[in-house]
């Protein structure tokens, strides 16, 4: 039986990581099996343990990668000299949208994984990874401001983060009812961003 090249092994690992991040965000950690992940990556179940020691290891890795992508996206809203209001407006239009609500697999792990991470034991690696990811989003929010970094600015960023995540989480829970769109619109308006 021919051996898989190192290059192909690395490509397979990336496929597994991408598939797991999407599936975990869509179905939760316990709603996805190793077989589901491998099938989604187009690989056989038996190859999983050649890449990862456990599903817990993969969950932490996938969570971290998903947060890296979200933090980079959040930082991109402040590019090109955008002031704080413009950066926050761009973030809100992106985050408090029907697309974010309806496509959890392509969205932010902060809202799609919150309940699952909260159910994990404190010693699970994904707990620390999730915490670091949230801190990266807070840092992205505080970076929008040119003001000196203060406790007040941090508290404002935490409140905004909570509203963004909470609004999408609730809107997702009642998707299909007009209340879902109302929640997203109310959050945009309350945060001072206006409606779409």
Automatic annotation (TrEMBL):
<keyword id="KW-0238">DNA-binding</keyword>
<dbReference type="InterPro" id="IPR009057">
    <property type="entry name" value="Homeodomain-like_sf"/>
</dbReference>
<keyword id="KW-0805">Transcription regulation</keyword>
<keyword id="KW-0804">Transcription</keyword>
<protein>
    <submittedName>
        <fullName>TetR family transcriptional regulator</fullName>
    </submittedName>
</protein>
<dbReference type="InterPro" id="IPR036271">
    <property type="entry name" value="Tet_transcr_reg_TetR-rel_C_sf"/>
</dbReference>
<dbReference type="GO" id="GO:0003677">
    <property type="term" value="F:DNA binding"/>
</dbReference>
<keyword id="KW-0678">Repressor</keyword>
<feature type="domain" description="HTH tetR-type">
    <location>
        <begin position="10"/>
        <end position="70"/>
    </location>
</feature>
<dbReference type="InterPro" id="IPR023772">
    <property type="entry name" value="DNA-bd_HTH_TetR-type_CS"/>
</dbReference>
<dbReference type="InterPro" id="IPR001647">
    <property type="entry name" value="HTH_TetR"/>
</dbReference>
<feature type="DNA-binding region" description="H-T-H motif">
    <location>
        <begin position="33"/>
        <end position="52"/>
    </location>
</feature>
<dbReference type="Pfam" id="PF00440">
    <property type="entry name" value="TetR_N"/>
</dbReference>
